[in-house]
């Protein structure tokens, strides 16, 4: 770390220990542009020998390890990692190419028991898990920022407000599957882990000052313990503009076009949106074109699309048109839980009253604690308890219900009394 970085980090740590979370170094002076990693941009590791050297270096390092991953969202199919960045005391920084080194389980094992520092961990953990990197302990700097009450929790904003440095964020949305990766992109990637350890230390002090450090630890443990998310049921229903599609036959067109697009995108390894836009799918569903000529006149199926492409999309439309009524998709998705809150007043006025009282109490407490409501307790958890409350309206019974829904002990201790009062007042 340079002398300037040392000074700013020390100031930030003092600030984190005794000032509101939004009153960091940046509030006093202009942030210092962070232009180069302290040891320069490391070479990209893309072979077994290079990976073995990184594993040895990081296994011999000390303290927590900063971890980040870059994907190619919007360019490639899926969410695989195309670059992994790490930094640890005694090992420096490393950039690893998961295309050349697709199995990083050896690195993951070498870092077992070490605290991993990630920013917005739930975004990167799925792609890291695919290549064998699974943490046993972590510190999420974004989540820590939320719990500490920071108004902006992006990495750049956090580094600026806490440590007084400005990160260059111009390459966040580039195609990371590009090979070779340009030097400016690699510099940007290395800088993303450059100050994560410093940020983690400052945030830990701030959380401790606010009495929220144990809350954060419970949240981090929950992220580590969470199983991989199951495949989404009927993912075609999330097509942008789906709310315009009302009839079951039209919904079948969306489903057939979505599934055809997904097969093509997977085969070509490109983002589905580059094969056919959601808007085009919805237009075709609303029109249910009778033939290729009618399809080609719709937005999204213009003159740039070849005859063969148009025919494959028309075939999908024709499959939907040929389905018997019994095989058409049902409107909406089967509910797993309470109905939308807007329907509660008609379906169960007492439940609606319970929800209104619970929401108001949770909102007031979240404001007092200076943290987002959804981090105090998830809205879905509140809805489920209010819709089907425990038979006994006691704090113990409500606590058990919250625990069954995945609430952490710190959340239960704060929220259970509020929900108990809301349930008792609107039995």
UniProtKB/TrEMBL annotation:
Please report the name of this protein according to its UniProt entry: Ribonuclease D
The species this protein was found in = Streptomyces jumonjinensis
The superkingdom listed in its UniProt entry is Bacteria
Q: Where is this region: Disordered?
A: 1-25, 325-346
Could you state a single Gene Ontology molecular function term? 3'-5' exonuclease activity
Matching InterPro entries, A to Z?
A: 3'-5'_exonuclease_dom, Exo_C, HRDC-like_sf, HRDC_dom, HRDC_dom_sf, RNase_D-like, RNaseH-like_sf, RNaseH_sf
Bias-annotated ranges (Low complexity): 16-25
Question: Which PANTHER family does the UniProt entry name for this protein?
Answer: RIBONUCLEASE D
Per the UniProt entry, what is one GO biological process? nucleobase-containing compound metabolic process
- Boundaries of every HRDC domain copy: 247-327
Q: Report the CDD domains cross-referenced here.
A: RNaseD_exo
């Amino acid at each position: 770390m340079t002398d300037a970085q040392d000074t700013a980090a020390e100031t930030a740590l003092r600030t984190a220990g005794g000032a509101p979370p939004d009153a960091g170094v940046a509030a006093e002076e202009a942030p210092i542009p962070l232009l180069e990693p302290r040891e320069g941009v490391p070479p990209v590791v893309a072979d077994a020998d290079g990976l073995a050297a990184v594993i040895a270096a990081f296994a011999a390092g000390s303290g927590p390890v900063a971890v980040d991953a870059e994907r190619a969202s919007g360019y490639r199919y899926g969410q695989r990692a195309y670059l992994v960045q790490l930094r640890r005391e005694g090992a420096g920084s490393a950039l690893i190419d998961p295309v050349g080194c697709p199995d990083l389980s050896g690195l993951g094992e070498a870092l077992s028991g070490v605290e991993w520092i990630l920013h917005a961990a739930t975004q990167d953990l799925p792609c890291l898990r695919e290549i064998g990197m699974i943490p046993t302990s972590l510190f999420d700097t974004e989540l820590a920022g939320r719990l500490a009450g920071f108004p902006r929790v992006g990495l750049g904003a956090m580094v600026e407000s806490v440590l007084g440095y400005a990160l260059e964020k111009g390459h966040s949305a580039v195609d990371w599957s590009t090979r070779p990766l340009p030097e400016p992109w690699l510099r940007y990637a290395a800088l993303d882990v450059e100050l994560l350890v410093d940020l983690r230390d400052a945030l830990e002090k701030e959380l401790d000052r606010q009495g929220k450090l144990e809350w954060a630890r419970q949240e981090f443990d929950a992220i580590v313990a969470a199983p991989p998310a199951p495949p989404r049921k009927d993912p075609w229903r999330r097509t942008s503009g789906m709310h315009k599609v009302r009839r079951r036959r039209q919904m079948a067109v969306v489903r057939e076009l979505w599934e055809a697009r997904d097969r093509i995108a997977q085969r070509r390894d490109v983002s589905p949106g580059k094969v056919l836009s959601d808007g085009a799918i919805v237009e075709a569903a609303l029109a249910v074109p009778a033939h290729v000529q009618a399809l080609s006149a719709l937005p999204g199926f213009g003159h740039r699309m070849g005859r063969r492409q148009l025919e494959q999309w028309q075939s999908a439309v024709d499959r939907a048109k040929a389905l018997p009524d019994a095989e058409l998709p049902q409107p909406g998705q089967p509910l797993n839980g309470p109905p939308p809150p807007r329907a509660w007043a008609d379906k169960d006025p007492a439940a609606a009253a319970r929800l209104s009282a619970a929401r108001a109490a949770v909102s007031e407490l979240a404001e007092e604690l200076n943290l987002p409501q959804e981090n105090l307790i998830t809205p879905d958890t509140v809805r489920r308890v209010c819709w089907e409350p425990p038979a006994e309206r006691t704090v113990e019974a409500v606590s058990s219900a919250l625990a069954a829904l995945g609430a952490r002990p710190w959340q239960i201790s704060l929220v259970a009394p509020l929900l108990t009062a809301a349930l008792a007042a609107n039995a």
